Every structure is written in C-alpha cells, then in structure tokens.
C-alpha cells in the first residue's frame, strides 16, 4: 500500500547478530513480564471475583492505557494494544495457557522493532536492522506510534478472533465453566 520502505541495512554483519540476539532476548523478557502480569496471576485472581471476561476487559484496558505513556503513542495505538490484550486473553481461554500469547507478543515486538525497524508503541530501539521509513497517512502507517497505531492493525486483530477460534477449539478447562 506504499506506506513502508525497507531502506538500506543500518548494521554491519557482526552487529546484526549482536543486536538481533539482544533484541530477541529483551523482547522475550518483556513479553514474559507483560503476559504474566496482565494475563497471569492478576487475571486469574480478578476472574474469581468478577468473571473471566470482565477481568480480561479491565486488565486489557489498563494494558492499553499504560501504552499512552509512551512517547508518540496515540489513541488508535492504545486501542490496538487493548485489543491485543483481549486477543491474548482469548488465546488463554482457548489453549489453557499463556505460551501462545508470550510467543506472539515476543515475535510481534521483535519483528516490528528489529526486523522491520519501525517504532513499537511509539518508541525506536537502538540497533535496528534497517534504515526503514514510514510514509503516508497515519491511518496506514501508524505515524509516530508505528504499525500499532494504524487502523489496519485493529482490523487484523478483529479478524484474528474467528481465525484462532476455528483453529483452536475451547480448552477442556473452559468447558467446565471456569471462564
């Protein structure tokens, strides 16, 4: 759609390995922290009091709202992050564990920030692979927020629910009324 250009390589071959490995490790750690914080114990504990989906909505709204503190993040990006939080809760309800959400979160952050070298939640990382540029309207590129701030991301996340639902039937624990 013309909103992204790869540009040239920004790193020497030796630094690609160093920054690539450091980025992968950092995003695995971020994903573990955020998924276990927002979709782990807090979700489990809050579910006992208010039910799974009210708890999922509240924690996902907080997750999205906290991203508004990132420089360059906007309301569309925060909604995108909130919708991702709900999708991660949905994957938890279908699989019975957090590992799909952790893997998806890690892969998304690593791909955006290192491989495609665009802002993630409005932040640029040091050691990006490419000298990529975003150009065009913010609804297409996300503007300063990066791809999380684009309307297309919301549409992709919305479509992810029925696709995941078709691929992963309800987890046995969910059939027992836990969620």
TrEMBL record:
PANTHER family: MEMBRANE-ASSOCIATED PROTEASE-RELATED, PROTEASE. The chain crosses the membrane at residues 16-33, 45-68, 74-92, 151-171. InterPro entries: Rce1/LyrA-like_dom (IPR003675). The lineage of its organism: Bacteria, Pseudomonadati, Acidobacteriota, Terriglobia, Terriglobales. GO terms for molecular function: endopeptidase activity. It comes from Acidisarcina polymorpha. Residues 23-110 form the CAAX prenyl protease 2/Lysostaphin resistance protein A-like domain. Keywords: Hydrolase, Membrane, Protease, Transmembrane, Transmembrane helix. It holds the Pfam family Rce1-like. The keyword Hydrolase applies. GO terms for biological process: CAAX-box protein maturation; proteolysis. It comes from the Bacteria. This is Putative metal-dependent membrane protease.
